[in-house]
Design a protein that fits this description.
alpha+beta; Rieske Iron-sulfur Protein; Naphthalene 1,2-dioxygenase Alpha Subunit, Chain A, domain 1; 2 domains; seven-stranded antiparallel beta sheet; five-stranded antiparallel beta sheet; 18 strands; globular
C-alpha cells in the first residue's frame, strides 16, 4: 500500500489479489444502478486473469479471424498466427475453406509459409505430404526398426493435419479452438438478419491496417464502445459528425451489440468537402440506407458499417499486456470494379489513417497510464455504460453468470 498522501482506498484495485477468480473481487462491477464500474485494473495486466480469459472465453468461443476473400481460388492458402497459434487457411479442391494447425503431425515443423496456391502441402523437414483437405498423402520411408511401415491404410486418418473448427458469415471466417458448444449461427443470433441487406458476403477487403499494441486486448474493444471520448480524442474528426443515435434492442444471447446513427453520407469518411465517397448501395433496406451501424461481436470483433462499405476490426489477444489490431476496409465488388475506385478509396483510407490512429494512440496511452502504481478506476460516466456491459459479459464467461 502506498503512503497516505496518495489517498489510496482500503482495497487497491490495481494490486492483483492472490485469487483473481474470486467473485467477491468483482462485486462492484456486478452491482447495477445509476453508478457503474469497469473491471479492476489488474484485469488488464494479470497473467492469471489473461489465462482464464483464454481458457474460458477465447479458446471455446467463436473468434473472427479473416475474410474468405483472402483465399479466393481453389488451392489458395494463407498462413498466419492468430492468438499466438500458427494456422493455415486453405480453399480445398471442393471449394470449401478450412483452417488447420500449421504443424506437421510428425515432428511439428510448419508445413506452409506465406501465401500462395498449391496442390498439396509438403513438410520441409521430412517431406510428409498433405492434401488441401488435410489428409496425409505420403510419409516417405516412415518405418520402425524392423522396416514395418508406421502409416497404413487403417491408421492413415490419424496422421492428417489437425483441423480447427471454423464457420463463416458475411464473408468473415470464424474459428474456435475447442469442439462443441453453440454453432456460429446460434452465437450470432439475430444479427445476420438485421444486416442482411448490406450483403457483407459480396464485399471484398481492399486495405488492411495492422497494429501490434502494448495494450491488453480490452483497451481497444472498450474504447470502440466508449462514447465519452469522442469529443476529446476525435474533436477534429468523428466529433464533427452530427447524427441521431438509436440503439437496437439487445439480442437474447447478448453476444453482440448494435447501434444505428442516422445521418446523410457515410461515417466511413469525414464530413469535410474534400472527402468524396461512393454512392450508397442500392439494395439496403430503409431506413438503414441513411446512416451507419456500429456493431460489436464479442469478444474482439467490431464493425463500422456505412451505406457504401464497411470497416471491420479484429482485436486479438497476444499476451496479458499486448494485442494485435487488424482493421479491414470492405467494399462491394461492384464498387471495386469502378474505374475510379483506387482514387476515391484513398479518401476512406485517409480517414482511417486519422481516426483509427487516434483510437490506437489513446488505447496505448491508457495502457501505459494504468501501469502506474497511482492508477485508479472511478465511477463510469453514462456514455461509458457499455464498458460495464462488456465487463459483465467477460465475467459471465470467466467466472460464470451471477444468480
Amino acid at each position: 500500500m502506498l503512503d497516505g498522501l496518495t489517498n489510496a482506498p482500503a482495497t487497491d484495485l490495481r494490486i492483483e489479489p492472490e485469487n483473481v477468480l474470486d467473485p467477491r473481487h468483482y462485486a462492484g462491477v456486478r452491482e447495477q444502478g445509476p453508478r457503474l464500474h469497469a473491471l479492476p485494473l489488474w484485469c488488464y495486466s494479470s497473467p492469471k486473469f489473461f489465462q482464464a480469459e483464454m481458457e474460458k472465453l477465447f479458446y471455446p468461443g467463436w473468434n473472427m479471424m479473416e475474410r474468405l476473400d483472402r483465399v479466393p481460388n481453389k488451392g489458395d492458402f494463407h498462413t498466419l498466427t492468430f492468438m499466438n497459434i500458427p494456422l493455415v487457411m486453405v480453399r480445398g479442391s471442393d471449394d470449401k475453406v478450412r483452417v488447420f494447425a500449421n504443424t506437421c503431425r510428425h515432428r511439428g515443423a510448419l508445413v506452409a509459409e506465406g501465401s500462395g496456391n498449391c496442390k498439396s502441402f509438403r513438410c520441409p523437414y521430412h517431406a510428409w505430404v498433405y492434401s488441401l483437405e488435410g489428409d496425409l498423402l505420403g510419409a516417405q520411408q516412415y518405418s520402425d526398426g524392423e522396416d514395418v511401415p508406421l502409416v497404413t491404410d487403417e491408421n492413415r486418418r490419424e496422421f492428417g493435419l489437425i483441423e480447427i473448427p471454423s464457420d463463416s458469415w458475411g464473408g468473415f471466417l470464424f474459428v474456435k479452438f475447442r469442439k462443441g458448444g453453440e454453432s456460429l449461427a446460434d452465437f450470432l443470433g439475430g444479427l445476420p438478419a438485421v444486416l442482411a441487406s448490406h450483403r457483407l458476403e459480396d464485399m471484398v477487403c481492399t486495405n488492411r491496417l495492422v497494429f501490434d499494441m502494448d495494450a491488453n486486448w480490452k483497451a481497444f474493444v472498450e474504447n470502440y464502445s466508449d462514447g465519452y471520448h469522442i469529443p476529446t480524442v476525435h474533436k477534429d474528426s468523428l466529433a464533427r459528425w452530427k447524427a441521431k443515435y438509436t440503439r437496437q434492442p439487445p439480442p437474447p444471447n447478448g453476444n453482440y451489440t448494435i447501434a444505428f446513427a442516422e445521418h446523410e453520407g457515410s461515417q466511413l469518411l469525414l464530413p469535410f468537402p474534400d472527402y468524396v465517397g461512393f454512392p450508397a448501395m442500392p439494395q439496403i433496406e430503409k431506413p438503414w440506407d441513411k446512416g451507419t451501424f456500429f456493431v460489436t461481436i464479442r469478444p474482439g470483433m467490431m464493425m463500422t458499417m456505412g451505406n457504401d462499405g464497411a470497416l471491420a476490426f479484429c482485436c486479438e489477444p497476444t499476451g496479458p499486456t499486448t494485442s494485435r489490431l487488424t482493421v479491414s476496409s470492405l467494399f462491394p465488388k461492384s464498387t471495386v470494379a469502378r474505374n475510379d475506385f483506387e482514387e476515391i478509396a484513398k479518401n476512406y483510407y485517409r480517414r482511417n489513417g486519422i481516426v483509427v490512429k487516434e483510437d490506437v494512440d489513446i488505447s496505448l496511452r491508457q495502457a501505459a497510464g494504468i501501469a502506474s502504481p497511482f492508477a485508479r478506476m472511478v465511477t463510469l460516466q453514462k456514455l461509458e455504460k457499455p464498458l460495464n456491459q462488456i465487463a459483465n459479459w467477460i465475467l459471465d464467461k470467466v467466472l460464470g453468470p451471477t444468480a
